[in-house]
């Protein structure tokens, strides 16, 4: 059974009715009452400029780690092969 409530205290009436005396959910029956905080935060989308900046930064880190002497060449080639991606455009 699940009940949506504003706060975990006190236990909602719908649940306490089910837990009444002689219930299969009484203490010692192996069942428990638990709660979980459900938060619906608004989805924060990155701007196109922020996506482009982070994609280029990640590319630079990756290339400088793998190919320190030729990183600039590989970075330029990768940006040339996928310009839309590195401008921060969405693929979907």
Q: Overview of this structure, please?
A:
By secondary structure, this protein is mainly alpha-helical. It has a domain of 39 residues. The chain is built from four helices and no strands. Helix 2 crosses helix 3.
Which helices and strands occur, and which strands form pairs?
Layout: H1 13-18, H2 48-66, H3 71-81, H4 83-86
What would a concise description of this structure say?
With 92 residues, this protein is an all-alpha fold. It is 43% helix and 0% strand. Helix 2 (48-66) crosses helix 3 (71-81).
What is the residue-mean pLDDT, rounded to a whole number? 83
Give the uncertain stretches in residue-range form. none
Q: Write the element-wise H/E pattern from the N-terminal end onward.
A: HHHH
Number of helices: 4
Sheet-strand content, in percent, reads under 5%
The helix fraction, in percent, is: 40-55%
Cα gyration radius (Å): 27 Å
Number of strands: 0
Q: Could you state the oligomeric state of the chains shown? A: single chain
> Tell me about the biggest sheet?
none
Shape: elongated
Class by alpha and beta content:
mainly alpha
Q: Termini distance?
A: 38 Å
Keywords:
about 90 residues, mainly alpha
